[in-house]
Amino acid sequence: MSKAAHNFGLPEGYYVPAEEDRHERTFMQWPVNRTVHPDKWFLKDLQQSIADVANAIADFEPVVMLMASQYQPAARKLLSQQVQIWDIPTDDLWCRDSGPLFAIDGKGGLAVSGIRFNGWGNKQVHGQDGRVAKTVADRLGVAVYDSGLVGEPGGVEWDGAGTLLAHESCWVNPNRNDSSKEDIETRLLAAYGADRMIWAPGVAGLDITDDHIDALARFVRPGTVIIQVPYPEDDDPFSVSARETLSILKSARDAAGRKLEIVEIPSPAQTRVQSDEFVSSYVNYYVCNGAVVCAEFGDPETDQEVAGILGELYPDREIVSLNVDPIGETGGGIHCATQQQPVSL
Fold this sequence. Notes:
This protein is an alpha/beta fold. Helices cover 26% and strands 24% of the residues. It has helices spanning 40-58, 72-76, 95-98, 119-122, 129-140, 181-192, 237-251, 300-313, 325-329, and strands at 23-29, 63-67, 83-87, 101-104, 110-116, 144-150, 156-158, 163-167, 196-200, 217-221, 224-229, 261-266, 286-288, 291-295, 318-322, 339-342. A hairpin with a 2-residue loop joins strand 13 (286-288) and strand 14 (291-295).
């Protein structure tokens, strides 16, 4: 997808590489905003979970935690010495959505594909988070190329080889983009340097993200998708949507014209946290250099089964399972809390 053809998107030759490609570092954000997290004791638990994720990743690749300077002394006590801290103010932890979406050209070039974060359709305060991507890019001396889109990278799955997967509910939505599906698709493809879009309807208005795809289905590699399936008796809107997305994936083809290999994994039968708001997504894992960092939810049988499946799908990586329940209680997971900077050459 060429920038020459539009006044938006990445320059010719740039694309967003697959998450499993080698990383320069991982960016994360320190949650601090008391309007978002009024319970200070829960906020402490949440910060500990973010520290646990950062410390686990730091065993495999560099990690940079973003936060304003006044929070650094307390955070330093929780973070491994391997984790760097940059003085970039944040509100919340969702670096997948408000952090920089990096692109490369395969010749040493590095850029940021600019997707404007507006707090998931102005559902949450984001005065600091809305500036994170540009501030990081400026510190790195990296250009930002405007996509003309409002939204979040957590709402797109990509294979690094030309194919995108997304729910319409969080993109073709006037709380983010008041334009046609066709225009939004064109801009998304240009933002990722991709060629083929696979859409599923999703669910609007029932969670803060309007049904981000990365809590349901992920590309393992080009041609292979992992999806978490609900129990047959589950008939809530998200379970209905999940089955619809699965059906669409079964008939879809990727940018190379291939039918997709689909790996179905179960949902946990029981979780430590019993709440309708709790996100218990096994597929919201993060692939870093040498490891897959994933969640466990207190269901020994299913936790072990899914870790085994991930080990088979990523045979050259260590599987690191963490209890990140406080992140699930806030509506996300490990993938939502991370954003990778790829190696640019």
